[in-house]
Specification:
Elements: H1 3-9, H2 12-21, H3 26-34, E1 57-61, E2 64-68, H4 72-87, E3 122-124, H5 127-130, H6 141-153, E4 158-160, E5 172-175
Antiparallel strand pairs: 1-2, 3-5, 4-5
Helix pairs in contact: 4-6
Bound molecules: zinc ion (ZN).
Length: 176
């Protein structure tokens, strides 16, 4: 697949926002995008294979498009995002700030594993409101309680970046 196709169908505004927020991922992320084409060989941090955008499944919640790995990851993330939109806050808040698949990029702080966005097994919701890497506590206590209860009800199959102590990532949710 030509790399121009990847770029033209990416939500570029949200990608830019994410890269600005994820400062130390910027250089690696840009290099990866410029060299786009085939996905990097290997797996992302959670063990899922890195894929190209053409290998993702596209779906939408509340008019917002997402691209995720086919099968179970799409089922899980679609269920969670649909629930989040209806029960936590609309994902239409913010401007083009919801993110899913992206060209594989290493993630800080260790830069030894590819982001789970590269395998289409992670989403960012309302980045403009919830910051990104390094941000926690951007949800109200009520919202936090709801999110924790929902993730528990899904058997812990989705992990919330807001719970990470090392480098919290409030808008980020990924398949375990
Ligand atoms: Zn993310």
């Amino acid at each position: 697949m030509p790399s121009s196709h990847s770029r033209s169908t990416l939500p570029t505004r949200s990608l830019r926002t994410h890269l600005l927020v994820a400062g130390s991922a910027l250089v690696v992320g840009c290099a990866s995008i410029l060299g786009a084409g085939a996905a990097a060989a290997g797996t992302s941090q959670n063990g899922y294979p890195l894929i190209t955008q053409a290998q993702t499944t596209q779906w939408a919640v509340n008019g917002v498009n997402f691209w995720t790995a086919p099968g179970k990851p799409t089922e899980l993330l679609r269920e969670f995002v649909t629930w989040f939109d209806a029960n936590v806050e609309p994902i239409t808040l913010g401007n083009g700030d919801d993110w899913s698949w992206a060209e594989p990029a290493l993630v800080p702080p260790t830069n030894t594993a590819y982001s789970n966005h590269g395998s289409g097994t992670a989403v960012d919701l309302n980045l403009e409101i919830h910051g990104g890497q390094g941000f926690s506590g951007t949800f109200t206590p009520e919202q936090t309680g709801k999110i924790r209860a929902k993730l528990a009800s899904m058997g812990g199959q989705i992990v919330w970046g807001g719970e990470w102590s090392n480098l919290p990532d409030d808008p980020h949710f990924e398949v375990r």
